[in-house]
Amino acid sequence: MIYLRTVRFEHILDQAGVPKWRQNSPLLATMPVKAVWTIATPVRDRSVDLVDSRFFRSIRDECDDVGKRASLLVMLTGLYHALGHEDYQPVIKHTAGLNVKPAHIFKYRGKSEKVWELKYQNKDRLYFFSYSSTVSESRNLLIPLSFLHKKDQTTPDTIKDQCEREMKPLLDPSPQITILKE
């Protein structure tokens, strides 16, 4: 069984210590008319609160100054506006200063899978996985995995390993996914 918890942007910003007045940005004021993608992050089981997820721990550990908080706000704004589009990446790329590219490509069950890196400026990264399934029900998930203030150009092996380990069960045939509300 795979457990994911839905994530609201304001809770990510709260974990990062972004002041409420900054969160009330006009850029975040309008949700896409109909979200095509759901944001949800992995948790070990039903008993794990969102704030105890690996993703939220990375936010608390890495997003520890004003510059990093500002970067996170820009990245989340781009992601937020992309939720209403099936092809979300061009929307992200049209957000000033943002770039999205594969951070890690791994083979699983004969297929190449990508962990994506949302980057603002040269240091701050938000790693995520996009998942679409039509097996039992149609669902599109953007799964944030980690935030990192990167010190070099390559994605650290610890991030690659963590992301790959968390996503492989999702890629098994007919995975049993339970999406828990925040």
What does this structure look like?
The chain starts with a strand and ends with a strand. 32% of the residues lie in helices and 31% in strands. The longest helix has 17 residues, at 66-82. Strands 3-4-5-6-2-1-7 form a 7-stranded mixed sheet. The protein has 182 residues and is an alpha/beta fold.
Envelope shape = globular
Give the structural class: alpha/beta
Low-confidence stretches: none
Helix content: 25-40%
Counting DSSP H or I runs of 4 or more residues, the number of helices is: 6
Radius of gyration: 15 Å
Report the β-strand fraction as a percent range. Answer: 25-35%
Features:
single chain, 182 residues, alpha/beta, 7-stranded mixed β-sheet, 6 helices
Quickly describe the structure:
With 182 residues, the chain is α/β, with parallel strands linked by helices. Helices cover 32% and strands 31% of the residues. It starts with a strand and ends with a strand.
Task: Outline the secondary-structure elements.
Blueprint (H helix, E strand, L loop, with lengths): L1 E5 L2 H8 L3 H4 L14 E6 L10 H9 L3 H17 L6 H5 L4 E11 L2 E10 L3 E10 L5 E11 L7 H15 L5 E4 L2
Parallel strand pairs: 1-7, 2-6
Antiparallel strand pairs: 1-2, 3-4, 4-5, 5-6
